[in-house]
Each structure stands twice: as structure tokens, then as C-alpha cells.
């Protein structure tokens, strides 16, 4: 699920005292009072009440005088040649104010955040089901939809290429060809072999971000010929630049204002909804609003890459890995989007958080006529985690070694070298995490009494019988990279302003549910001792902060806020230090009070701020990385985060239904900045991972999306959410990260599906090599 808060609401909460006791975090334990403000406090989100009461302003709620409504005509075919487009039927309808096609795009006809290869509107070829053909603005939303349907498009339907393996030999689907990227990773001795060899073929399905709120936006024309777009963008400055290029305008004549984001795990990075909206506003001179239906949302945004993985693991007789060979094929769909970056993560992490002396990985990302793939939390890393953990289970079974013990014999630690040749310099407590979940007490077995039938797989009134239920225990170890990779310049800018005892943070880091606005308030409280802190709304008049992916804003934007706050702190303390003949380093701020090291000086922050206005602007830029070379080698990542999950499942081996009983989680977090928020982030990630493991698969038939709605696409609900036990949070601070903290959301998503699959293997003895797990894969022959 896409919204952390919404997803976590479906999961079993973990009490804060227990988290603090286990993590050794700032609160120290269950009997110790938590800090009231600043880092380490469970500060609630400022917008929590508005969201729960339904008064929070999302883009779908916006209104403007003279508002028109937009609708988009999308292709019903995954691959077709456009012979003609006749818009006259739509233009003649009463209430229709404008119709735009590819001919009406005044600037660049293609756009793309990573690769400029995607047309605003299809002109000659349709490359995927749901590709935009035209857009309409009308006085009423129903009129707009009817007008869009009245546009007559003549197609020559072409045979779609939907099998990524066939894309290599197929006719080019795009002028750039079908191969987006190939990464051959070479590490160690190709001739090395192990005493034991296991092989596996794995398939990962198409998970959709399924945002709790579908895409929406409002475009308002400006007197200078520009346009303002109000939308739930997660990277407003990049969106502004892409939109301006398509409009043929200078970037300063396009302004993107970020509205409330109803959850995002990457799906809101594509400006394909905003560009038609802005074109219609410029054409009509009126505000234009678009509120996508759930079907349009499924058709319009990107999804997780479906992936085919072939693996061969070599190990010695003791179970220690010798060599890993793998082939990884990512289905990018019709356009490149983030496929190159996703492939780099998949190839680099193909061996998992294990020491592997020799690794030979081939990775490809190819275009097909399937729906476009892009950023979804943990992209690349999640797919390979499911595969390499399947291999570890196979090795354990072949060697007769306990699966957890086999993993412990191979775990990565600080100072080890990745198959990319990069040394792991950050904390990597992988063994400690695995031991924590392994040693956590197992849940009790369900009873056979009728009143406990709800414990059976299938839920209340299920058809299963207790005698057909087997319990399985499985493990998953996962890793993700933090921030961008392969030479990407990561930078964020923030301003902290203090006036009348109130602090304001100005930073273009978008709050997508990851808690950045709460963290920014905590940083300023911690640094300046000011309790009342506001975070300004985000728009492109502010300096850029970059996209809300890979935990960037915790590190980069949080680091910029901290630096700006420290500069304001110096401005505040310098007069006092000068007055008492000491340096500012000898003064401290805590609980709203300023004191000196010797106790001579004691005053309050409020008194010293009286009548003053202080401000500072700062940037944060982590150390640079480098692209992977022609052998897949290079220091491509700023940092890494790790997680261990133990899954306990009950499987009805006759029906193939699976119930996740418990997920025990241990995570490498660096430092707990907000215990309550961290628990929500982990629980949300685990729940999203369970969806990928059991239910979430955007199915296609020859490139056509089947059932693009929340009836056909099954998200986990509160009835599916298991007991989530956060058994350990390892707080070993990363010295190069601001506050020493690591992003928390992606790595549980990456690890949970592998753990669930491992547990189903344990229960059934079946290989389980496909996600989501289909019922037939969980059916086994009853024992005895």
C-alpha cells in the first residue's frame, strides 16, 4: 500500500515503550519518560488531525472560479499504429472548451525524468494499454468524459511484445530500441565451483503502488502566459522543468505547488497527468481540474518491474557460499523511466547481504508493450531478495542445515566487500539482526475449537479444515541503498527562520507520508530549543530539494535543516558568548534554556529571542558516488540499510490459502529519531511486502490490464495484517549520515515477501518460486 499511515492502520501496532526498550533508543526503556520534543520524541504529525477529520486539502478537493474539468482519452490497445484522430465529434459537443492532441504540444513532444523517451500524447504509435491520445476540457466532468469518448481514433492493431525474453529479437518498439540497459557484473574467478550447487528460476509480478488517493491536479493560467499547477508532486522542481519544456516555456513561468499527498511510493513521480492539464489551462485561459478515476490511475502511472530471475548458487560442504551466478531480466514496459537505476540495484544486490567470493551476474532491462514500470519502494532490491533467499532455502534443504544457521554462516558485516567491489563502510549488523528474529519466541499454535475458526487460512466462514493446516517458519534478509546511486548529485537546500519566538522551516522536501515535516520540526526543536515550529508549504519558488525516494529527505533534507538550524543557533548564542567572554561551544540549549558549562549563565531561549529575527540557509550534499563500469564494478552507493524478518504462516495445504500469523522484524536504523513514527514506517513496509507476497499482482493479458480497480487488484486489509513484532532496532550510527540515522521504509518492503515465501516453503515443501504466491503453489500432499 502506498500511504504509510494508511497501511500501518491495517497492521498490529507495537507499543512505544516496548520499541524503546528493545532498541535502546532515546527513551531508554518502558519506565523512563520520553522527551517532550526534539529528536527521540514521538512527536505527532502536525497534519494528523486534519487528515483524520477529513479536512486536509488534497488536490482532488481544490476549486477555482470558472473551473473547467479535464478528461483524457487513453488507448484501448497495447500496441497499434494510429491512422487518424478525429476530434470534431468532441469539439462540437455543448460545454466542450478545448481538445488537445500531439499536434497541440508547443514544446518538446517527449518527456522523461531519467530518459526522454515518452510522448505527451501518442502520435504515430501506441506502445502500451492506457497511453494518452488526447485530452478534453469541458464545463462539467461528465461532459469531459463523454467528449473524450467521442474522439474517433482509427487504429491498425499490431501484435504486442509482452514477453521480455522475446523483446531481444523483436522489431524495435521505440526509436531507442528495446534494450534499455545491460549490466554484466564480474567479480572473482569465473572457474570457481562449490561442492554443492542449487539452481532456481523465479518470477516476480507487477505490484502497483495503489495510492490511497488517485492522481488529481488543478492548473491555473497566469497573466504572464505561464501556468501554476497544484498537484501531489513528489519532486516539484523536476516536474516543473519537464512541464515547462513541453509547454515551450522558461521554467520560471511554470510554478508547481504541492498539495497534500495521499500516499506515495514512487507512483507520483510521473508528470503525465499534469502536462495535459496545463496544456488545457493554457489553451482555454481558465483553471482546469483533473481527478483521475481508479481505472485511470492504474493505467496512467508506473508499476514495479515484473522480473524473471535465473540463479545458480555454489557452496562448500559447510554451507559457505563460493559463487553466485544469476541472470536478471526486468520488464520495463513501454518506456525507460527508472529502469536503469532499478537494474543497477538488482544487479548490485543480487547476492544479498552475504559474503560471496565470486559473483557473475547478467542484468537486462528491456522495453515491451506491457504497462510502464518505474519507481516503487525497494525497486530492484525486492525482486532479487525473493530469489536469493529462495536459493538459500534450497541450499539449506540440500545440506540438511537449519535455514537460519545457513544464513548466519554467510552474513555480511562492516568491512566486507560487495560484488560491485565497494567496501561496506557503514554499520552492517546483519548477523545480529538475524539472531534477534531467530531467537524471538514463536507464536502459539492455533486451537481446533470452533470459536477459533477465524485463525484458519481463509478467514471467517472459510472452507478450510484444521487438519489440513500446516505451520511454516521462514526467514528473509534484505538490503537497500540509501539516496541516489551511480554518480547522482544528491543535494537539498533548507532555510530556518525565527521570528517572535516561532521557527519556520522552508524546504522543498515533499511530505509523502515518510514524516519529513515532523522530523524537520524535531531537528529545530533539538537545535534551538523552540517548541513551536512550522514547516512551510512546498512550491517551486523555493530552492530544490530533490525527489522523495530512497529515504533522501531523512538524510539530505534533514541534514540541510540541521545545518541551517545550527547557523541560527550560532547567531543566537554569539552575543551571549561575547558578553561572558566564552565561545559558543561552551553554551548549550536544552528544554528551552540556555546554560553555560560552568553554570554562570542561565537564561531562556524566549528571552534571548525577544525582538529578534534570525535566519539562515544551508545545503547538504553527501559524498559522491560513481557509475558501475563495464564489469559492474564501482562505488555506486552512499550507504546501505539492512533488515531481517522471520515470518510464521499457516497454510491450508488442500486449498492453498495462506494466513500470515506473525512477522518478527529486526532492523538496522542507525538512530531512532521518532519511535512512534519509526514503528509506523516499519509496519507499513511489512504490510506492503505481504501484499507483494500474497495478493498484489496487476495482471495483464497480451498487454491489456485486467480489472484495473481495487476489486481486481487485491490489497491487504486489516483482516490480512498479521501481528508485527519489532523485536530489535539496532542503533549503530552511520557516521556519514546526519544524526546517524538510516531511512526505514524500503528495506522491510524488500525483505517481507522473501520471508513469507520462505515460510510457505517450510510449511508445504513446495519450491514457491513465484510472487505473489498462487494457491496452487501452496498445495501439498498431507503428511502420513
Question: What would your notes on this structure say?
Answer:
- The protein is α+β, with helices and mostly antiparallel strands.
- It has 17 helices and 31 strands.
- The strands form eight sheets. The protein has a seven-stranded mixed β-sheet. A six-stranded mixed β-sheet has the order 9-17-16-15-10-31. Strands 18-26-27-30 form a four-stranded mixed β-sheet, sandwiched between helices.
- Strand 22 and strand 23 form a beta hairpin.
- Helix 10 packs parallel to helix 17 and helix 13 packs parallel to helix 14 (552-579).
- Residues 1-46 are annotated as: Disordered.
- Residues 1-15 have a biased composition (Low complexity).
- This is Molybdopterin-dependent oxidoreductase.
- Residues 53-159 form the Aldehyde oxidase/xanthine dehydrogenase a/b hammerhead domain.
Observed structural traits:
Molybdopterin-dependent oxidoreductase, Ald_Oxase/Xan_DH_a/b, AldOxase/xan_DH_Mopterin-bd_sf, 7-stranded mixed beta sheet, 784 residues, single chain, 6-stranded mixed beta sheet, AldOxase/xan_DH_MoCoBD1, 17 helices, alpha+beta, disordered N terminus
Number of strands: 31
How far from one another are the termini?
40 Å
In spatial order, strands of the major sheet run 3-7-1-14-11-12-13
Compute the CA-based radius of gyration. Answer: 27 Å
User: Which residues sit in consecutive blocks of at least 5 with pLDDT less than 50?
Assistant: 1-32
Mean pLDDT: 90
Helix content: 10-25%
Domain Aldehyde oxidase/xanthine dehydrogenase a/b hammerhead: 53-159
Protein name: Molybdopterin-dependent oxidoreductase
Biased composition (Low complexity): 1-15
Region (Disordered): 1-46
Amino acid at each position: 500500500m502506498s500511504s504509510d499511515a494508511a497501511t500501518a492502520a491495517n497492521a498490529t501496532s507495537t507499543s512505544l515503550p516496548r520499541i524503546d526498550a528493545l532498541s535502546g533508543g532515546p527513551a531508554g526503556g518502558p519506565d523512563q519518560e520520553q522527551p517532550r520534543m526534539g529528536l527521540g520524541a514521538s512527536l505527532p504529525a502536525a497534519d494528523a488531525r486534519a487528515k483524520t477529520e477529513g479536512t486536509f486539502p488534497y488536490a482532488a478537493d481544490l476549486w477555482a472560479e470558472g473551473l473547467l474539468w479535464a478528461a483524457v482519452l487513453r488507448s484501448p490497445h497495447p500496441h497499434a499504429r494510429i491512422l487518424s484522430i478525429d476530434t470534431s465529434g468532441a469539439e462540437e459537443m455543448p460545454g466542450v472548451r478545448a481538445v488537445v492532441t500531439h499536434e497541440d504540444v508547443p514544446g518538446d513532444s517527449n518527456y522523461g525524468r531519467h530518459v526522454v523517451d515518452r510522448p505527451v500524447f501518442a502520435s504515430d504509435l501506441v506502445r502500451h494499454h492506457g497511453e494518452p491520445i488526447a485530452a478534453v476540457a469541458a464545463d462539467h466532468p461528465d461532459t469531459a468524459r463523454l467528449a473524450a469518448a467521442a474522439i474517433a481514433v482509427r487504429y491498425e492493431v499490431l501484435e504486442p511484445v509482452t514477453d521480455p525474453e522475446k523483446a531481444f529479437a523483436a522489431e524495435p518498439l521505440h526509436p531507442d530500441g528495446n534494450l534499455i540497459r545491460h549490466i554484466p557484473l564480474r567479480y572473482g574467478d569465473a572457474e570457481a565451483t562449490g561442492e554443492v550447487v542449487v539452481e532456481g528460476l523465479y518470477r516476480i509480478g507487477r505490484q502497483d503502488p495503489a495510492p490511497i488517493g488517485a492522481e488529481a491536479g488543478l492548473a491555473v493560467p497566469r497573466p504572464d502566459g505561464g501556468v501554476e499547477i497544484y498537484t501531489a508532486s513528489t519532486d516539484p522542481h523536476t516536474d516543473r522543468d519537464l512541464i515547462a519544456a513541453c509547454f515551450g516555456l522558461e521554467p520560471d513561468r511554470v510554478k508547481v505547488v504541492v498539495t497534500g499527498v495521499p500516499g506515495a511510493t514512487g507512483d507520483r513521480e510521473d508528470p503525465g497527468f499534469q502536462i495535459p492539464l496545463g496544456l488545457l489551462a493554457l489553451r482555454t485561459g481558465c483553471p482546469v481540474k483533473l481527478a483521475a478515476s481508479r481505472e485511470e490511475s492504474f493505467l496512467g502511472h508506473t508499476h514495479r518491474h515484473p522480473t524473471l530471475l535465473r540463479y545458480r548458487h555454489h557452496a562448500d560442504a559447510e554451507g559457505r557460499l563460493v559463487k553466485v551466478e544469476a541472470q536478471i531480466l526486468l520488464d520495463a514496459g513501454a518506456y525507460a523511466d527508472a529502469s536503469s537505476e532499478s537494474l543497477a540495484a538488482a544487479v548490485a544486490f543480487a547476492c544479498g547481504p552475504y559474503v560471496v567470493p565470486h559473483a557473475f551476474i547478467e542484468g537486462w532491462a528491456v522495453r515491451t508493450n506491457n504497462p510502464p514500470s518505474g519507481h516503487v519502494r525497494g525497486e530492484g532490491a525486492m525482486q532479487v531478495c525473493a530469489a536469493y533467499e529462495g536459493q538459500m532455502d534450497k541450499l539449506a534443504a540440500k545440506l540438511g542445515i537449519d535455514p537460519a544457521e545457513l544464513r548466519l554462516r554467510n552474513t555480511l558485516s562492516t568491512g566486507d566487500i560487495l560484488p560491485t567491489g565497494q567496501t561496506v563502510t557503514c554499520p552492517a549488523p546483519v548477523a545480529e539482526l538475524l539472531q534477534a528474529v531467530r531467537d524471538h519466541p514463536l507464536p502459539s499454535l492455533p486451537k481446533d475449537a470452533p470459536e477459533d475458526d477465524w485463525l484458519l487460512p481463509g478467514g471467517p466462514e472459510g472452507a478450510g479444515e484444521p487438519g489440513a493446516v500446516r505451520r511454516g517458519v521462514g526467514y528473509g534478509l534484505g538490503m537497500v541503498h540509501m539516496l541516489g546511486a551511480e554518480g547522482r548529485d544528491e543535494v537539498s537546500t533548507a532555510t530556518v527562520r525565527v521570528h517572535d519566538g516561532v521557527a519556520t522551516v522552508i524546504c522543498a522536501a515533499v511530505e509523502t507520508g515518510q514524516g519529513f515535516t515532523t522530523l524537520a520540526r524535531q531537528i529545530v526543536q533539538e537545535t534551538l530549543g523552540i517548541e513551536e515550529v512550522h514547516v512551510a508549504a512546498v512550491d517551486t519558488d523555493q530552492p530544490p530539494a530533490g525527489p522523495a525516494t530512497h529515504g533522501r529527505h531523512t538524510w539530505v533534507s534533514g541534514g540541510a535543516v540541521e545545518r541551517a538550524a545550527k547557523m541560527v543557533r550560532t547567531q543566537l548564542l554569539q552575543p551571549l558568548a561575547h558578553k561572558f567572554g566564552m565561545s559558543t561551544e561552551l553554551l548549550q540549549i536544552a528544554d528551552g534554556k540556555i546554560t553555560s558549562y560552568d553554570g554562570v549563565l542561565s537564561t531562556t531561549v524566549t528571552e534571548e529571542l525577544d525582538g529578534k529575527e534570525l535566519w539562515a540557509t544551508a545545503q547538504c550534499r553527501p559524498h559522491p558516488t560513481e557509475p558501475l563500469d563495464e564489469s559492474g564494478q564501482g562505488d555506486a552507493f552512499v550507504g546501505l540499510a539492512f533488515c531481517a524478518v522471520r515470518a510464521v504462516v499457516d497454510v491450508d495445504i488442500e486449498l492453498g490459502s495462506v494466513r500470515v500469523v506473525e512477522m518478527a522484524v529486526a532492523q538496522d536504523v542507525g538512530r531512532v529519531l521518532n519511535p512512534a513514527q519509526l514503528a509506523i514506517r516499519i509496519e507499513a513496509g511489512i504490510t506492503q511486502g505481504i501484499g507483494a507476497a500474497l495478493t498484489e499482482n496487476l495482471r495483464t493479458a497480451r498487454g491489456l490490464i485486467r480489472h484495473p480497480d481495487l476489486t481486481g487488484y487485491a490489497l491487504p486489509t486489516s483482516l490480512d495484517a498479521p501481528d508485527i513484532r519489532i523485536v530489535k532496532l539496532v542503533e549503530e550510527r552511520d557516521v556519514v549520515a546526519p544524526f546517524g540515522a538510516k531511512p526505514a521504509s524500503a528495506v522491510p518492503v524488500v525483505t517481507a515477501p522473501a520471508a513469507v515465501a520462505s515460510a510457505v516453503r517450510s510449511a508445504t515443501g513446495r519450491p514457491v518460486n513465484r510472487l505473489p504466491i498462487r494457491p496452487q503453489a501452496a498445495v501439498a500432499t498431507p503428511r502420513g
